[in-house]
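Quick one:
INPUT:
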């Protein structure tokens, strides 16, 4: 906890203490965000660093509240970009230039298009070849080979890291009917 004595603005005090630029979050005046991705909340004279948590996709996020009690769930990289990176072309999303979803420094973020983001993922090796499916083509072929060898569906599912119904649909030809 940092105690602020009111000699200069809270953002200036924070900039001095943490060694990087810090600004108030637009529409949420009780919060200050640093260019390195750290977020602080200000209540009275106390300034506290918040600890965001990772969501299922690995992005850091938290819930912030404005002075009127309106709450908003936000991802840290989006807040950093909205606060520190101009977006004159009105790009739809924020890209992580190094592929690390937890590196939310303004130097590592850029506004971009979906195509640029997909190209970044391929370049970083973070692109999910399965997309929305649960099994890649290689995994489907391996699962079918295991099923043909007589291994029970529940064992194949456990080995492939998917649910038994996914393997059942594969075996019955309900999905991926082209796989033999």
């Amino acid at each position: 906890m940092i105690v602020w004595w009111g000699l200069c603005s809270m953002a200036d005090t924070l900039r001095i203490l943490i060694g990087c630029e810090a600004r108030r979050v637009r529409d949420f005046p009780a919060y200050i965000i640093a260019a390195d991705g750290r977020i602080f909340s200000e209540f009275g004279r106390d300034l506290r660093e918040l600890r965001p948590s990772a969501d299922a996709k690995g992005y850091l996020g938290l819930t912030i509240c404005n002075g009127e009690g309106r709450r908003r769930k936000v991802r840290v990289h989006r807040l950093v970009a909205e606060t520190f990176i101009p977006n004159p072309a009105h790009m739809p999303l924020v890209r992580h230039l190094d592929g690390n979803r937890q590196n939310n420094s303004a130097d590592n973020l850029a506004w971009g298009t979906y195509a640029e983001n997909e190209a970044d993922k391929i370049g970083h090796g973070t692109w999910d070849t399965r997309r929305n499916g649960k099994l890649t083509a290689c995994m489907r072929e391996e699962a079918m080979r295991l099923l043909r060898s007589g291994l029970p569906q529940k064992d194949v599912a456990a080995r492939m890291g998917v649910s038994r119904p996914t393997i059942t649909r594969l075996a019955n030809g309900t999905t991926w009917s082209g796989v033999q």
